[in-house]
Amino acid sequence: MAKARTLVGLDVHAAKIVAAILDVETGELRVKRLGGETPVAVDLCSSLPAPIRATHEAGPTGYSLARGL
Description:
This protein has helices at 38-47, 63-68; strands at residues 6-12, 16-23, 29-35, 52-56. By secondary structure, it is α+β, with helices and mostly antiparallel strands. It has one domain: Nucleotidyltransferase, domain 5 (2-Layer Sandwich), CATH 3.30.420.
Protein backbone atom coordinates (compact mmCIF):
# COMPACT_ATOMS: atom_id res chain seq x y z
CA MET A 1 0.00 0.00 0.00
CA ALA A 2 1.30 3.43 -0.94
CA LYS A 3 2.08 5.88 1.82
CA ALA A 4 -0.45 8.72 1.94
CA ARG A 5 0.65 12.19 0.91
CA THR A 6 -2.60 13.81 2.09
CA LEU A 7 -4.83 12.87 5.03
CA VAL A 8 -8.42 14.14 5.10
CA GLY A 9 -10.96 13.97 7.91
CA LEU A 10 -14.52 14.90 6.99
CA ASP A 11 -17.21 15.92 9.50
CA VAL A 12 -20.40 15.38 7.49
CA HIS A 13 -23.76 17.02 8.20
CA ALA A 14 -26.78 17.63 5.98
CA ALA A 15 -26.09 21.37 5.59
CA LYS A 16 -22.28 21.43 5.73
CA ILE A 17 -19.10 19.41 5.58
CA VAL A 18 -15.98 20.44 7.48
CA ALA A 19 -12.72 19.02 6.12
CA ALA A 20 -9.43 18.87 8.02
CA ILE A 21 -6.61 18.39 5.51
CA LEU A 22 -3.05 17.44 6.46
CA ASP A 23 -0.23 17.52 3.91
CA VAL A 24 2.08 14.85 5.33
CA GLU A 25 5.17 16.11 3.47
CA THR A 26 4.96 19.76 4.56
CA GLY A 27 3.04 19.37 7.84
CA GLU A 28 0.53 22.01 6.71
CA LEU A 29 -2.92 21.62 8.28
CA ARG A 30 -5.92 23.34 6.69
CA VAL A 31 -9.61 23.41 7.60
CA LYS A 32 -12.24 23.99 4.93
CA ARG A 33 -15.97 24.50 5.36
CA LEU A 34 -18.03 23.23 2.45
CA GLY A 35 -21.67 22.98 1.54
CA GLY A 36 -23.36 19.70 2.38
CA GLU A 37 -23.44 18.41 -1.19
CA THR A 38 -21.46 15.27 -2.01
CA PRO A 39 -19.98 16.58 -5.31
CA VAL A 40 -18.35 19.51 -3.48
CA ALA A 41 -16.49 17.15 -1.12
CA VAL A 42 -15.56 14.80 -3.96
CA ASP A 43 -14.14 17.73 -5.96
CA LEU A 44 -12.10 18.87 -2.96
CA CYS A 45 -10.61 15.42 -2.39
CA SER A 46 -9.89 15.01 -6.11
CA SER A 47 -7.94 18.27 -6.17
CA LEU A 48 -5.55 17.30 -3.35
CA PRO A 49 -2.08 15.79 -3.87
CA ALA A 50 -2.29 12.00 -4.18
CA PRO A 51 -2.18 9.45 -2.71
CA ILE A 52 -4.99 10.43 -0.36
CA ARG A 53 -6.45 8.71 2.68
CA ALA A 54 -9.83 10.05 3.77
CA THR A 55 -12.13 9.19 6.64
CA HIS A 56 -15.59 10.31 7.64
CA GLU A 57 -18.43 9.29 9.88
CA ALA A 58 -20.84 6.67 8.59
CA GLY A 59 -24.07 8.36 9.61
CA PRO A 60 -27.11 8.83 7.39
CA THR A 61 -25.52 11.79 5.59
CA GLY A 62 -22.23 9.97 4.98
CA TYR A 63 -23.41 7.11 2.77
CA SER A 64 -23.72 9.12 -0.44
CA LEU A 65 -20.27 10.58 0.25
CA ALA A 66 -18.80 7.10 0.64
CA ARG A 67 -20.24 6.13 -2.74
CA GLY A 68 -19.02 9.36 -4.33
CA LEU A 69 -15.47 9.00 -3.08
